[in-house]
Amino acid sequence: MPELPEVETVRRGLQPVMEGAVVEKLVLNRPDLRFPFPEKLSERLLGQKIISLGRRAKYLLIEFEDGASLISHLGMSGSYRIEPDIRGSLDNQPVHQADDSFYYPKTKYPEKNTTHDHVVLHLATAQYGARQVIYNDPRRFGFLLLAESGELEGHASLKNLGIEPTGNSLSGPVLAALFKGKKVTLKAALLDQHLIAGLGNIYVCEALWRAGLSPLHAAGEVADDLHVSELLATCIRDVIADAIVAGGSSLRDHRQTDGTLGYFQHSFAVYDREGEPCRRCGALIERIVQNGRSTFYCAACCT
Fold it and tell me: I want to staple 211 with a disulfide (CB 3.0 to 4.6 A). Which of 52, 190, 226, 232 is the partner?
């Protein structure tokens, strides 16, 4: 499932084209994804200008000029891509050749199985002309929900989320306060979206390794040592930042909006490296199961 860095990568890829664009048409190629599409969504967004693209945890937020927002979750296999809109884009105008024949220039975007193109936004942009933003989702675990003006913060998907693990929101003292007195494992506490929003299995494993901490620790033990909690907070912020720069991790379905893969998976220290040598101490990486999820760590140097 795409985690915070993958969603942020998608947001940054979509932002230049979508912000300031006007929705000329919204095509829904099926009635639902994980949930049914909001009623009359195509009519609701017709002619609306997109004011901003934001992100909260693993949700992409598309805000329109009337205050409404689309809440988009990528699920297990969702991805967005941007293509010229053949209806009006200069990029797709037929080229006249010397023999009086015409051809359409091939776009730079890689081929995609369009069978799973479930949502197509036709946009008019000032800088890029006509563009299509296409949502593709083979497993259909993603979804689109609509929050009307003033409803976004209180929406059921967002209202109980914890702090963001980016910027200055997450610090040692904040982490210590969140974990104080908690007997659950450190891994479980870090994955609790009510405490810290957006962290997933991959980046929790990687952050714990960077901090030299065992995922089996009780979260409350970290809260009792401000030096350790500050170290962990720093490692979380750093691994998220590094993953965003790398375009996220492409293990199965994640692609950036131009179709290219993320490459942070080539930098994994522990995740999915069971039986391989630790990059720090050389001992073999182990895999255990916690709450039904695989945890990868080095028992020799993560204590």
Answer: 232
Q: Which CATH architecture fits 4-147? A: Alpha-Beta Barrel (3.20)
pLDDT of residue 237: 96
Name residue, tokens 């000029």: 65
CATH pick for 172-297 out of 1.10.3720.10, 3.40.50.150, 1.10.8.50, 2.30.30.40: 1.10.8.50
Question: Which residues are part of the catalytic machinery?
Answer: 2-3, 58, 293
Q: Is 4-147's fold the same as 172-297's?
A: no
- 115: which 2 tokens? 């069978």
Which of 200 and 247 is assigned the larger pLDDT? 200
Distance separating alpha carbons of residues 178 and 32, to the nearest angstrom: 37
> With 70 as the cut, is the pLDDT of residue 75 above it?
yes
pLDDT of residue 86: 73
Residue type, 149: S
> Does 98 score more than 50 pLDDT?
no
pLDDT tens for 284-293 read 999 999 999 9
| Token pair belonging to 193 | 């979206």
